[in-house]
Amino acid sequence: MYTILRYANGQRVDGLILSASPDLIRVALRCQSDTAELRRVFGELTAEDGSPVELESMVAGDHTDLGCYRGFETRARVQTAN
């Protein structure tokens, strides 16, 4: 599953979600040789250094089981005019 992560400093990074559980997501980040682990701490995703991380976007194919992503709901950041 493709994702865009947004770090607290505003940096956006593309990645592929390798695995996920209710409290941990492993992501292969673009242009990095190691994977990143995102942990849920008090309901908020955090990077390995403890800084907050937001799942800005998640794009899944029809074959993806989204059941394991419960609890990682994202808030809508885009509003449309009526």
Range of strand content: over 45%
Give the end-to-end Cα distance, rounded to a whole number of Å: 31 Å
Order of helices and strands: EEEEEE
- The 3D shape can be described as globular
Mean pLDDT: 79
Would you tell me the structural class of the helices and strands?
mainly beta
Count of β-strands: 6
Proportion of helical residues: under 10%
Give the count of structural domains.
1
Q: Characterize the biggest β-sheet.
A: 6 strands, antiparallel
Individual helix count: 0
Q: Largest beta sheet: what is the strand line-up? A: 5-4-3-2-1-6
Question: Summed up, what is this model?
Answer:
The protein is an all-beta fold. It has no helices and 6 strands.
Could you please describe the fold and organization of this structure?
The protein is mainly β and 82 residues long. It has one domain. It is 0% helix and 48% strand. The chain has no helices and 6 strands. The protein has a 6-stranded antiparallel beta sheet with strand order 5-4-3-2-1-6, with no helix packed on it. A hairpin with a 2-residue loop joins strand 2 and strand 3 (24-29). The protein is globular. The model is unreliable at 78-82 (pLDDT under 50).
